[in-house]
């Protein structure tokens, strides 16, 4: 009976969470079909009676896996590394610094950001493209992190426990459709939201002001200029007809909210940096990644003659298989600038030209200059594998695991082990990869497969059995609740 009640609670939480998020998307879509800017609050305090921490983690993972199964994610390592780096910097200066944050990017033409259950924070690609500098992007991340640290959704859920919940199927369909067409998402939600929308709106308004206040503090403590929050608000207001001020008065974006954010800016923060090369390289890389016409960026009149524009041009050249042009551009700038992404792109250009040895030489030098820098490490081990040196890859990846525990590292390690003929170790690494991605059953299956291999040592058996038992206990804990 306990299990059934808790499952019902989980489904009620999912329904409320999505209705709370999507009600704001609905309001914005009614104002402007070109603007869908939703600040989705996060799941809250696990100590609240309505929800426990294990359920929160379980729901967060399920929420994330559902998104991954139905939406297009940006998987570019360099872009994700940047977003996670700045996100973790900000999170470390929040009241939720002890929480595990997950940052990811969804390919979508709508301006949107959301904080999901268990600190899963998503950003739409269009939001990054609309941001003019790092402080504007960071302000959105800080705001969402503040929703996490202030446990907004849990409190909202407790307040509206008697509200009629929307069905999960309807809500999931709406959020997925809404990533591409906010009006279509609106159509799915229109009849369902009428009964519960107002209670969510009233609570959201208070949360948004609080998240702004806390977010400004997070930005300042991270040494990022909080002016970017006001600037990005103004960008959003400009995109809604006549500012949308009256219609948005009780919703997350209003002229009053912008004014209050301005008043909270400290003069001591005026001199904090507003931008970085990392952000500009990331945005340039994302533009080329998303472009359906990369040839257009081969024109200097389009990209300009500065460093970022020429980097963008080189990436476009790689995409259209003009490696020689990319090499010419990048070689010139590599002599003048030390940013590692220039040489990473140069290695990528040589790889596209099938010159794996030259690419390896560049990456070998980069690995010495930037030891432990994940984008360099992963490019380097891929080049080592292509050049028939999996043992070196294995050693490098094991060292990387001393500071980073990412699924992508275990995936690369599994490939290196397979190439090196170490099947049991490869299966174990694949199990570790799945475990960190939340695919518990698949991870256990890989450990079982590894245990079936011949001639594995006793210590390896014990390690695999221990890992398998640990995951089995996790599954049992969730089943018991």
Ordered list of secondary-structure elements with their pairings:
Layout (H helix, E strand, L loop, with lengths): L1 H30 L7 E2 L12 H18 L6 H15 L10 E5 L6 E4 L3 E5 H6 L3 H16 L2 H8 L8 H11 L3 H12 L3 H25 L5 H12 L16 H10 L12 H14 L9 H4 L3 H13 L3 H14 L3 H13 L3 H14 L4 H13 L3 H11 L6 H13 L3 H15 L2 H12 L6 H23 L1
Parallel strand pairs: 1-3, 2-4
Antiparallel strand pairs: 3-4
Helix pairs in contact: 1-7, 1-8, 1-9, 3-5, 5-9, 5-10, 7-8, 9-11, 10-11, 12-14, 14-15, 14-16, 15-16, 16-17, 17-18, 18-19, 18-20, 19-20, 20-21, 21-22, 22-23
Q: Mind explaining what this structure looks like?
A:
The chain is mostly helical and 481 residues long. The chain has a 4-stranded mixed sheet with strand order 1-3-4-2, sandwiched between helices. It starts with a helix and ends with a helix. Residues 1-52, 160-172, 183-198 and 242-251 have low confidence and may be disordered. It folds into 3 domains: 2-269, no CATH class; 291-372; 388-481, Serine Threonine Protein Phosphatase 5, Tetratricopeptide repeat, CATH 1.25.40. Helix 1 crosses helix 9 (197-221), helix 10 runs antiparallel to helix 11 (255-264) and helix 16 packs antiparallel against helix 17. It has 23 helices and 4 strands. The protein is 67% helix and 3% strand. A hairpin with a 3-residue loop joins strand 3 and strand 4. It is globular, with a radius of gyration of 24 Å. It has helices spanning 2-31, 53-70, 77-91, 125-130, 134-149, 152-159, 168-178, 182-193, 197-221, 227-238, 255-264, 277-290, 300-303, 307-319, 323-336, 340-352, 356-369, 374-386, 390-400, 407-419, 423-437, 440-451, 458-480; strands at residues 39-40, 102-106, 113-116, 120-124.
């Amino acid at each position: 009976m306990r299990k059934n009640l808790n499952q019902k609670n989980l489904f009620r939480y999912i329904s409320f969470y999505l209705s709370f998020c999507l009600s704001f998307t609905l309001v914005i879509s009614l104002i402007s079909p070109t603007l869908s800017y939703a600040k989705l609050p996060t799941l809250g305090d696990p100590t609240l009676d309505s929800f426990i921490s294990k359920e929160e983690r379980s729901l967060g993972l399920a929420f994330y896996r559902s998104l991954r199964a139905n939406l297009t994610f940006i998987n570019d390592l360099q872009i994700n590394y940047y977003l996670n780096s700045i996100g973790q910097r900000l999170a470390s200066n929040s009241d939720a610094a002890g929480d595990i944050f997950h940052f990811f990017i969804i390919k979508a033409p709508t301006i949107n950001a959301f904080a999901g259950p268990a600190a899963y924070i998503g950003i739409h690609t269009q939001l990054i493209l609309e941001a003019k500098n790092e402080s504007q992007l960071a302000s959105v991340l800080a705001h969402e992190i503040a929703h996490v640290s202030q446990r907004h959704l849990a409190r909202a859920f407790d307040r509206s426990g008697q509200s009629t919940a929307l069905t999960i199927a309807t809500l999931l369909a709406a959020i997925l459709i809404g990533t591409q067409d906010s009006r279509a998402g609106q159509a799915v939600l229109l009849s369902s939201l009428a009964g519960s929308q107002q209670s969510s709106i009233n609570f959201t308004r208070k949360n948004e002001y609080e998240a702004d206040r806390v977010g400004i503090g997070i930005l300042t403590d991270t040494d990022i200029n909080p002016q970017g929050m006001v600037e990005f608000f103004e960008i959003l207001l400009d995109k809604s007809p006549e500012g949308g001020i009256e219609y948005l008065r009780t919703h997350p974006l209003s002229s009053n909210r912008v004014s209050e954010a301005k008043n909270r800016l400290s003069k001591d923060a005026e001199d904090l940096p507003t931008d970085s090369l990392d952000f500009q390289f990331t945005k340039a890389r994302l533009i080329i990644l998303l472009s359906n016409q990369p040839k257009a960026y081969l024109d200097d009149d389009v990209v300009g003659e500065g460093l970022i524009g020429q980097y963008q041009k080189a990436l476009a050249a790689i995409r259209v298989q003009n490696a020689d042009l990319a090499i010419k551009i990048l070689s010139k700038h590599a002599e003048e600038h030390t940013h590692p992404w220039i040489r990473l792109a140069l290695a990528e250009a040589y790889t596209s030209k099938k010159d794996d040895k030259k690419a390896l030489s560049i990456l070998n030098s980069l690995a010495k200059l930037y030891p432990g820098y994940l984008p360099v490490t992963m490019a380097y081990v891929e080049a080592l594998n292509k050049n028939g040196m999996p043992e070196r890859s294995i050693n490098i990846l094991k060292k990387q695991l001393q500071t980073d525990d990412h699924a992508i590292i275990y995936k690369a390690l599994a490939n290196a082990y397979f190439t090196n003929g170490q099947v049991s170790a490869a299966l174990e690494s694949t199990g570790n990869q799945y475990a960190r991605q939340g695919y518990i059953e698949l991870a256990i299956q890989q450990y079982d497969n590894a245990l079936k291999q011949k001639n594995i040592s006793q210590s390896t058996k014990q390690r695999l059995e221990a890992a398998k038992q640990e995951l089995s206990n996790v599954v049992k804990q969730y089943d018991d609740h």
